[in-house]
Amino acid sequence: MGLSAAALVLGCALASRFAHAADATVGADVFKSECAECHSPKEGRNKKGPSLFGIVGRKAASLPDYKYSDALRGRTDWVWTPEKLHGYLSQPAKQTNPGTKMKYDGLTDAKDLDDLISYLGTLH
Ligand code: HEC
Prior knowledge:
Blueprint: H1 3-19, H2 24-34, H3 70-73, H4 82-89, H5 93-96, H6 110-120
Helix pairs in contact: 2-6, 4-6
The structure holds heme C (HEC).
C-alpha cells in the first residue's frame, strides 16, 4: 500500500471515529443495560455503586455518602474525564483498579462506549 493510500485509510478511520458524533440518546440505553443495575443517574441516589450524577469531571471516590473501597479511595489523583472513563470502562474494572468493588467486565464496543460517555456528560 502506498503512503497516500495508507494516509487515506487512516484518515477515514479517524473521520468515522469522530464524524458519528457520539449519541447520548443511544448512550442512555447502553447505560440502562450495562450500568443501571448498580448505578443511578440521579443526584444523591446510590445503589450498589455510587450515583453517577455529574460523574464527568468529578474526582474519583468523592461522594461523601457512599462507602468506596480502599482501592478507589486511594486514587486521589483520578478525575473522571471522558478519557479516563474510556480507559476504565473498556476493560474489567479490576484491571484498571485492583481491589475495586465494581464487578464489571468492561464494554468493548467502541461506539457503545462513546455513546455511553456522551450520555454520562449530560448528567448535570
Ligand atoms: C455489578 C455492579 C456494577 C456495574 C454493572 C457497574 N458498576 Fe460502576 N461501580 C460499582 C461499584 C460497587 C463502584 C464503587 C467501586 C469502589 O468503591 O471500588 C463503582 C464505581 C464506579 C465509578 C467511580 C465513581 C466514583 O465516584 O468515583 C464509575 C465512574 C462507574 N462505576 C461507572 C460505571 C459505568 C459507566 C457502568 C456501566 C458501563 C458501571 N459503572 C457498571 C458497581 C458497578
